[in-house]
Amino acid sequence: MKIAPGQINAFLQKPDPALRVILIYGPDAGLARERADMLAKKTVPDINDPFRTATLTGSVIGEDPARLADEVAAQALGGGSRLVRVQSATEGMAAALKSLLDDWPPTDALLLIEAGDLDKRSKLRALCENAPNAAAIACYVEEGAVRQRVINDILQAEGLGIARDALTLLIEVLPPDRLAMRSELDKLALYARSARTQKQITVEDVQAVVQDAGAAELDDLIFAVGSGESKRAMLLLERLFDEQTSPVALLRAAQRHFLRLQWARHQVDSGVSAAEAIKRLQPPVFWKHQDTMAGQLRRWTRVRIETALARLFEAEAAVKRTGTPDTALTAQLLLSLAA
Q1: Using CB atoms within 10 A of its CB, is residue 174 exposed (0-12), middle (13-18) or buried (19+)?
Q2: Fewest Cβ atoms closer than 10 Å to its Cβ: which of 60, 150, 216, 266?
């Protein structure tokens, strides 16, 4: 089934237990990740529990299609529901998914699929929109009143209000991607709570925390990584770590970039010019980065992009584990991608 935009929030709060497959896709990778995390947490108590959760990538299934059915059919050690999560899904797994939907094994596992932007011709979309035991949720960049409501909801959940002029400024300067936006709002909430006893965010708070320069510096790092500028990437990494930028923020910024690159690569492989593929990206690529993005489309093949995404997803899971040298691991991965 296709979940209509107005029904998504209600569905996320109370998903249909009869559904065995849920596809989450769209150009807003951060929103897709946030929604996937919400559904994952409603399926298993701990989404990082290796006995209850299996995480795959589209490239892994492409190399071994039978792996998908094997993971879905496996029983959770100790009992309980099982979650099989596929990140960076590709059209190449459509045949394996169709076989699974046609003959679902005797299990109550949930298969949660995360993909980039999929057009109306997508086989993955068609399968999940039409199968009685599957659903598809689209994640598009939020604008206008919807964006304002999301910001207000996030701040209210933190016990904070916001002045009207501060909200207007915040709407302008926050990044469009939900994951990046939430990261900035988390920093703003922490600052506001520590800076004063009152619970009203002001323009001065926004100006102090949400810095366009910092966002631009992070973008510069990710573009340097994608373009193979290892020396520049190293300098930017050092600077961002000096500014206390978290490793998870760096990894997620890289994930967003490579998901966009993956979508554009798919367009080019389908016969669209690089310039047109970049033009179709949402949110739009900043004009000064368009030539750089075109160069990266020549540098990165579909397989290389999928491999990079798999490594980035695995690294994020690793840095969240206690005792992991997160800064060193993140730096090593990003510089290896830039090599």
Answers
A1: buried
A2: 216
